[in-house]
Structure formats: C-alpha cells, structure tokens
Design brief:
three-stranded antiparallel beta sheet; alpha+beta; 3 helices; ADP-ribosylation fold; 116 residues
Length: 116
C-alpha cells in the first residue's frame, strides 16, 4: 500500500472531518490541486513550507484510493511530487499523527518518516 503524505494545519483537518470532505488548503485551491509528498519528500516540504509552524498534523493517505486523480508531476528541481486533482476522500486517510516542532525548531516526524 503506497502512501503519500499531507501536512495539514489541525483546524483545517478538524473542519474537513466535520464537513466530511477535504478540498485542500488555500494554497492547494489556488494551485488547482492538493499538494502531497512522498515519505522521502515530506521532511523537506515541512522545512520549506511549514518552517516554525506548530499545531500541524501529518496525514498518511493510501495513494491507490485516490485513483487517476493523483498524478506525479515535476516540481522542485524536477522531482516528481504527487498532486491530487479533486477532493481527497477522507476514507483514504490511514493515519493522522501530530507533527510537533522539536527542540531544534524542526518538525519531529513519526518514526520511519522520512525513511531512515
């Protein structure tokens, strides 16, 4: 089961759960797709786009459940990043973990993410 990851502010995820739908963060809606990262990319995504932010969650999403709307497209330096064109079905989310800031000011990921 391949996974992709979404870093999400807690209030945005709370709203998504209450509404039963996730259409993405404001940046996702502006870009026309929901930004995801692979396990190997997610720490850099956190450092670049969420530096110093707390009250974040790490959503692990089963890529196969997203169907053809999930596309891997070139982004930073030509790396292929997963982008979802459409809403993310909540039942595709297999885990939701806190993504706190560590003592060094960087996000402390769950064990194994990113791969060691």
């Amino acid at each position: 089961m391949p996974l992709v990851y979404k870093i999400c502010p807690r209030p945005l995820w709370t709203t998504a759960e209450a509404e039963g739908r996730f259409g993405g963060a404001p940046v996702d809606r502006a870009d026309g797709f929901i930004h995801f990262s692979t396990a190997a990319q997610v720490a850099e995504t956190a450092a670049r786009h969420f530096a110093g932010q707390d009250d974040l969650l790490l959503l692990a999403v089963e890529a196969d459940r997203l169907g053809d709307a999930l596309r891997y497209e070139p982004s930073r330096g030509g790396a292929l990043f997963p982008h979802l064109y459409g809403e993310m079905p909540l039942d595709a989310v297999v885990s939701v973990e806190d993504l706190p800031l560590g003592p060094d000011g960087r996000h402390a990921f769950p064990e194994g993410i990113p791969p060691q």
